[in-house]
Specification:
2-alkenal reductase [NAD(P)H] activity; ER; alpha/beta; ADH-like_C; Rossmann fold; GroES-like_sf; oxidoreductase
């Protein structure tokens, strides 16, 4: 039967646990074969991966943690898990049939057998670009939505600061904040990204943190009356400077710490006294705890996209062989917008 054909399956494995900055040599492209079938009587789903996601959190999973993290470490010699947009090839699950388009957790390979279909979502708006489901309509989009509305609790007129603001999450937080009626400033690592924030994403102001000698002074310049909401994607020195500039009862949504992921000894935070004196609330969050609100988020975001209220930028690498370079590039600021890898177009 054609459905049970055996085909070549290229995949990217982790060769070793990583310390410091990851390199392409920490990963390897290998080729095996896979039978396009699901085990008889199982509820598994076999998918062909069309797009693979590159996300900063993946760096943490490359580490051999002494204490367990919120998600398991990657296992050397095994295929690297990631989010993907995929097409169902064969299914033993009643909710999925061959030809269905889905997004969710699969792996860095051409074909994946999903034994836990609760980790995938059916795509409800296939006329939109499928790549949207790894960005604005996928995990980064839900992260932005949940982190801003559920954690930050914005009010019209709030002063909002976003670090790593041109990334997959930051660009959306900024636009959601503008829709809410907030004043929005972002930081990014190049003049090109700063210009993107102000022209394409509608931020009120933005600055290149690499050109600032004093981050505290930069934030005082941009927020002379202080910050109500800091959406933190980087941690480190930027978090320290933001704490100095928070207003009374400000909120800090801790989304990511990309400035710390490649350090063996993480930087400390010195300005915690501001949390007490200004009654600042700092709250971390994990997007997986918000997947229950996905359908509500999806419909709201689709409406914004169709009405032109939300725009987005993607950085697409072609071919699974370019997955290691695309992933490593995240930590050198090479990408602009959501980084993904196109594996197949149909």
């Amino acid at each position: 039967m054609a459905a049970a054909a055996e085909v070549s399956n290229r995949s990217v494995i982790l060769k070793r646990h990583v310390t410091g900055f990851p390199t392409e040599d920490d990963m390897e492209l290998v080729t095996a074969t896979v039978r396009l079938a699901v085990p008889p009587g199982s509820a598994a789903v076999m998918v062909k991966n069309l797009y693979l996601s590159c996300d900063p959190y993946m760096r943490s999973r490359m580490t051999n943690h002494k204490e367990p993290s919120y998600v398991p470490d990657y296992v050397p010699g095994e295929v690297i898990p990631t989010f993907s947009v995929s097409k169902v090839v064969e299914s033993g699950h009643p909710d999925y049939k061959a030809g269905d388009l889905v997004w969710g957790m699969t792996a860095c390979e051409e074909y994946t057998l999903i034994t836990s279909p609760e980790s995938i979502f059916k795509i409800n708006h296939p006329k939109l670009p499928l790549s949207c489901y790894l960005g604005v309509l996928g995990m980064p989009g839900l992260t932005a939505y949940a982190g801003f509305f559920d954690v930050s609790k914005p009010k019209k007129g709030d002063y909002v600061f976003i670090s790593a603001a041109s990334g997959a999450v930051g660009q959306l937080v900024g636009q959601l904040a503008k829709i809410t009626g907030c004043y929005v400033v972002g930081s990014a690592g190049s003049d090109e990204k700063v210009n993107l924030l102000k022209t394409k994403f509608g931020f009120d102001d933005a600055f290149n943190y690499k050109k600032e000698q004093d981050l505290n002074a930069a934030l005082k310049r941009c927020f002379p009356e202080g910050i109500d909401i800091y959406f933190d994607n980087v941690g480190g020195a930027m978090l320290d400077a933001a704490l100095l500039n928070m207003r009374l009862h400000g909120r800090v949504a801790m989304c990511g710490l990309i400035s710390q992921y490649n350090l063996e000894l993480h930087e400390g935070v010195r300005n915690l006294a501001c949390v007490v004196t200004k009654r600042v609330r700092i709250e971390g969050f994990i997007v997986m705890e918000h997947f229950g609100t996905y359908r509500k988020f999806e419909e709201e975001m689709v409406s914004h996209l169709k009405e032109g209220n939300i725009t987005y930028v993607e950085d697409v690498a072609e071919g699974i062989e370019n997955m290691p370079a695309a992933l490593v590039g995240l930590f050198y600021g090479r990408n602009i917008g959501k980084q993904l890898v196109a594996v197949a177009r149909d």
